[in-house]
Design brief:
CATH architecture of the largest domain: Orthogonal Bundle
Number of helices: 17
Number of domains: 3
Radius of gyration: 34 Å
Shape: elongated
Strand content: under 5%
Structural class: mainly alpha
Length: 287
């Protein structure tokens, strides 16, 4: 389908000076697909960003503005009529709405005008999965007679559920392999994504887990510990945290206190040394 669409885009460029209805008839006559077919395909690959009418409108403006910039002596009224606008004022309104500048300003400033066909080409680059589906439908003459449930699901997933086109294509492929309806699988994947997001939001982050494991009571205490030991939060040790919290000056002093009280400790039990024990030890060992 992307090859057919590329042909359609070439026809549009070739006949861009015709009226919209005439361009659409030319496209249908030479490709065999009507504007509704292209609208559904464009809606899927661009996540609703393009319809054929929008594309042709923007394409007319692209060529018309290019014409007025490259031909500064050409009257605006002539350009307006040449590209199908009713008069110069209608052309001026369309240009100003699209580009934020009047035709005269664009002619004077000569800016680089974005090529909307390049934007569409970027969508086509990732549409191989859709091409296979369209080719299958085309070979069975379903392209214009199908009820389009598949594409309605696809458009719903991109517009309402927030899935990108690549994700929808992967889900589509999985639905075929598992013989699960595409729309049903899309909805289940969305529900799972919401559940995972909620779990991630409620789950403690890495720093919270670290603080819990080392018994650090607050973010302020974590900052104070990092400042005290001149280190990063992930470099702190359990012993350093306890020494800071108990006001112990060195690991040697901590070792002497443990031996003095013959402390025993198992992981998970309350830490056996308290501030009172530290103060008592110091009182008993004053020089």
């Amino acid at each position: 389908m992307s090859k057919v669409l590329d042909t359609a885009l070439t026809i549009i460029d070739r006949d861009i000076r015709l009226k919209h209805s005439e361009i659409v008839r030319k496209v249908y006559a030479e490709t065999g697909y009507c504007d509704q077919d292209y609208n559904k395909y464009l809606a899927v690959i661009s996540s609703g960003s393009f319809t054929l009418r929008d594309y042709i409108r923007k394409r007319k403006l692209f060529f018309a503005v290019g014409d007025l910039i490259s031909n500064p002596e050409k009257p605006l009224a002539e350009i307006a009529l040449e590209y199908g606008y009713s008069d110069q004022s209608a052309f001026t309104r369309a240009v100003t709405k699209e580009y934020g500048k009047t035709p005269s300003e664009l002619r004077r400033e000569k800016p680089q005008i974005p090529d909307n066909r390049e934007v569409l080409d970027s969508f086509l680059a990732s549409s191989s999965r859709l091409d296979a589906i369209f080719d299958k439908m085309d070979s069975q003459n379903y392209m214009s007679t199908s009820d389009w449930h598949y594409f309605e699901d696809f458009i719903y997933a991109t517009d309402e559920l927030g899935f990108d086109t690549s994700t929808c294509c992967l889900i589509s492929e999985l639905s075929e392999k598992l013989s699960i309806p595409f729309g049903y699988l899309l909805q289940k994947c969305f529900e799972m994504a919401i559940m995972c997001e909620q779990e991630d939001r409620n789950a403690p982050d890495e720093i919270d887990i670290f603080m819990m494991e080392l018994g650090i009571e607050s973010g302020d205490e974590l900052d104070a510990l990092c400042l005290h030991y001149d280190c990063k939060w992930y470099e702190l040790t359990f012993v350093q945290v306890k020494m800071y919290q108990l006001g112990i000056r060195s690991e040697e002093e901590l070792d002497r206190i443990w031996k003095y009280y013959d402390c025993k400790w198992m992981l998970g039990d309350p830490y056996p040394v308290t501030r009172e024990m530290v103060q008592d030890y110091r009182n008993n060992h004053k020089k």
